Amino acid sequence: MSTIEDPVDDLSVTPPKTWATGVPAVAHALEYSLSQTSVRRTALTLLNINQTKGFDCPGCAWPEPAPGKRHLNEYCENGAKHVNDEATSRRVTAEFFRAHSIAELGRASDYWLNQQGRLTEPMVKRPGASHYEPIDWDEALGLIADELRRLDSPDEALFYTSGRLNNEAAFLLQLFARAYGTNNLPDCSNMCHESSGVALQETLGIGKGSVSLDDIHTADLIFVVGQNPGTNHPRMLTALEETKRNGGRVIAVNTLPEAGLIRFKHPQKARGVVGRGTPIADQFLHIRAGGDLALFQALNRLLLEAEDAAPGTVVDHAFVDSHTTGFADFAARAREVCWDDVRAATGLSREEIEEVRDRVLASEKVIVCWAMGLTQHKHGVPTIREIVNFLLLRGNVGRPGAGVCPVRGHSNVQGDRTMGVWEQMPKEFLDALGREFGFTPPARHGLDSVNAIRAMRDGDASVFLGVAGNFVRATPDSDVTEEAMRRCRLTAHISTKLNRSHAVCGETALILPTLGRSDRDVQAGGEQFYTVEDSMSEVHASRGKLPPASPHLLSEVAIIARLARRTLGSDPAIPWEEFEADYGTIRDRIARVVPGFEDFNARVARPGGFRLPNPVNQGVFRTQSGKAVFSRNAFTMPDIPEGHLLLQTLRSHDQWNTVPYAMNDRYRGIHNARRVVLVNPDDLETLGLADRAVVDLVSVWRDGVERRAERFVAVAYPATRGSAAAYYPETNVLVPLDSVADFSNTPTSKSVLVRLEPARPPELPAPVPAPPTGVVGARPP
Prior knowledge:
alpha/beta; 4 domains; 6-stranded mixed β-barrel; 31 helices; disordered C terminus
């Protein structure tokens, strides 16, 4: 047996990097992978990840090149670390849970919990118990089914999932929930890209992106707005390098300088190993947090003025007249944009924005990519609508090399939504589902993630089923969320590894261990594969290659199918046993319910799978008017009172979602610590704080509740004036539950008003048992 300790918190700071990837990325990926498992298993995972006969990387949703164009090593540093973190040889057994109480687990760090290894058997915390104990699958599923049948209303149950889920399991989960009688299907999209979906559905008639990888390669100009490809989806840098080598240009818009957007060293190319690599951003706009709406409003004004100066040369009138509506109202509003407002909101000069305009005018094909730096603001939806206005003006929607590109962070977050995991699926989907399976799905909209927390807090929901993910660490207002979860009569989590959600228990709590992406999945019908959909609507197969971490694991499909049968009883119209035995039978039903999946089994059998049709690229806009919609968006910007900063929460480089793999963020120059806040040095001086001062972060919100993240080190960093940045999940405690984006209800995690106070002296608590030291199973041969 061995022991795992938390890394020592011993902050050191170096200058931020001015390039990303290269040989150090390879070294770090291999170092972490080999710390988790053997050379043989590492080689097996890395040679199969993102290959046509292998498995999809769980790390992000960036698409793979077409078959025949993929590198033998078609993965990035973070993908390699993530897949071998899942393929770890460490095991969490019943012995571990006997050794550690739930209270002890609740005091452990996210890092420590993840490092314990793979879950191996079902566990239960019974009412009043201090420890989890083993339980067999039949009894575990029976406990959940009995509790679901006991509820006064199906709407007292919540069925949550993250983007790690595959298409087949996602389809079964939403089928189960709706056959049970509820649309309570909160998911991770509610907290990340819901603003994208709302804005794009309203303006273009479909809530996802319109571009392909080939479009990225052939674009003349790409905006990368509010995202950090070098950490969150590093393979995007390979695509942007191809853009640059094809003559395209890139504009980066960010509150922080990001190494990958400055220069990229491709680790599989000689120029990335011994050369200087490829400069990515031709222009970097160091924008203030929340200023993106004002930026695109200013650009739209400049483009309209350029059209006035040279009629017929700027606006694509043929496209605007035939394919859009609302232009006149939009144009009138755009001409009212005030440059003083733009300067205050963005921190950019008019000359910088005019330089962007000139690049736009020199480009025939323009793409705008974005991520949570846009979506997690109160005005996230209007910002994305304004981006659509910007693209529509010059016909940069629905044609090759141009369009909208929201970049998803989970590998199948888009697929889950396509499969029906959404609390407000349209009537057409529900009707098709009902016809296929002989029941009437509920019509009333269900609860999203924020409203699910409110329902648990208020006693309106008492059963929580989480399929993948780490709900309590991914959500806002950590103290409120955890107290809400503890009010439930039953919480159950389908998981591969230990996380904090397992230590925040309802009266009865279950841990249901499942197969990982890299595990072989053998059912009664033989070895199975499943499918995923990436950020660009490509659907392809995924086949695990490793022996399962334990003989007691069930697949997510099997768990959901068995639980549904136990809850709903046998019904020949929904053959749960058949679905569990052969995933192809699920795909046959998906083909009859979900548009674009016709002949699913045959099409996904082709190497690389297939791309779902996007009506926008056929000039079809499924809006009320049948046309793309220009929108009128009022100017707005965050109000930052004197003495305050606008905080954005973000990942470190050595992190995947809520899980830190180490205490470093080497591209930003932060080493051996996570409780840091990055602040412009001029802001530190104005606030009377020294570099490396120890401070408390105090969130300021209209409800008057004090939300405090204690003892962070303030690090002088080239952030924009008035803004700050710190890592989640440690700072999720500062995000008020009711601080959400208009229209989408997405938490405003990139727009948290805070003040920095000198840290309170540490209290001298009463003696408590030492934190867990860790019991880790031996590696299998």
